[in-house]
Design brief:
Elements lengths: L9 H26 L1 E3 L5 E3 L3 H7 L2 H30 L6 H11 L6 H11 L6 H8 L10 H29 L3 H9 L4 H12 L1 H16 L3 H6 L11 H11 L3 H33 L2
Antiparallel strand pairs: 1-2
Helix pairs in contact: 1-13, 2-13, 3-7, 3-10, 7-10, 10-13, 12-13
């Protein structure tokens, strides 16, 4: 007897497709349209083809911002992932202290991005900020509004303070999923603490660590609010990342065509790296036999 398929479930999915089309596809197609045209105002557009893409690919300004963005994301991942794992390994596993640590670790994640930027902007000021005033009193020349190195240190420290908790919480969840039998077997074999971490804990955390790396890369690569509030992209262009440069181009200069092409190239880079991470995660799951 031939089985009849019920296609009525598609009516339940249709509202989701319409919502996605309205909130994502239509704006994306509008940006694609702008990226192929030029305008002199009054809502009059002229066909430009791939002119903006060619111009941006040969733009020193774009590649400089891209280089700063890559360096920032690499530094963030190099600090936050090992630090988050270290914190998770040293957190209590059970009891009241474990619950208290989890709550405290989650607190920075609850603070809005613009508030984080405002906090660190005030905190680092030499005249009224606790950090800036203390460093100045110790004779340390620290001023994130004038010194590019100080600006970078401030932004990196701010991001580490804000987002290391996410890596720690994900790593902690991965550690909690490891059966106690693994630790008992390691104890019987008199394995060292390093051996337990390298051969038991780290392999079991691979999945959550890849998720943490993916999320932190995407966030750090698209960061805008915090550095814009703290430094505004300065001093000079020292902290002008891709997102800040894009906003300056779109709103500051009102170059809609180049800004639209810029945003699409930005989007494709993030999508490409995310796809690479997803492929790696899928291969790890297959090797682990999940």
């Amino acid at each position: 007897m031939e089985k009849t398929l019920n296609q009525k479930a598609w009516f339940l999915v249709l509202p989701v497709f319409l919502l996605v089309a309205f909130s994502a596809v239509i704006p994306l197609m509008t940006v694609v349209n702008y990226s192929l045209q030029d305008t002199f105002g009054n809502n009059k557009f002229f066909w430009a083809g791939l002119e903006w893409y060619t111009e941006l690919l040969h733009s020193e300004r774009l590649w400089s911002a891209f280089g700063r963005q890559i360096i920032f994301s690499a530094i963030i991942l190099a600090i936050e992932v090992p630090l988050g794992v270290f914190v998770a390994l040293n957190m209590p596993k059970k009891g009241v202290w474990a619950s208290l640590c989890l709550v405290l670790m989650a607190l920075p994640l609850l603070i809005p991005w613009n508030v984080v930027g405002t906090i660190w902007q005030i905190f680092g000021r030499v005249d009224i900020g606790l950090l800036g005033h203390t460093l100045a009193a110790l004779g340390i020349d620290y001023n994130y509004t004038r010194d590019p190195l100080a600006a970078w240190i401030t932004i990196i420290t701010m991001d580490v303070w804000h987002w290391t908790s996410l890596v720690a919480l994900l790593s902690y969840a991965g550690l909690q999923s490891i059966p106690e039998a693994y630790y008992q077997a390691a104890k019987i074999d008199q394995a060292s603490r390093w051996s337990v971490f390298w051969f038991i804990e780290l392999p079991k955390m691979q999945g959550v660590l890849m998720i943490a790396i993916l999320i932190r890369f995407m966030d750090s690569f698209m960061i805008y609010t915090e550095p814009f509030v703290v430094t505004g992209g300065g001093p000079g262009n020292a902290t002008t990342f891709l997102s800040i440069d894009l906003v300056k181009m779109a709103l500051g200069q009102f170059d809609l065509g180049p800004a639209a092409a810029f945003s699409l190239m930005y989007f494709l880079v993030v999508m490409l790296v995310s796809w690479v991470f997803y492929t790696v995660m899928t291969n790890l799951d297959k090797k682990a036999g999940y």
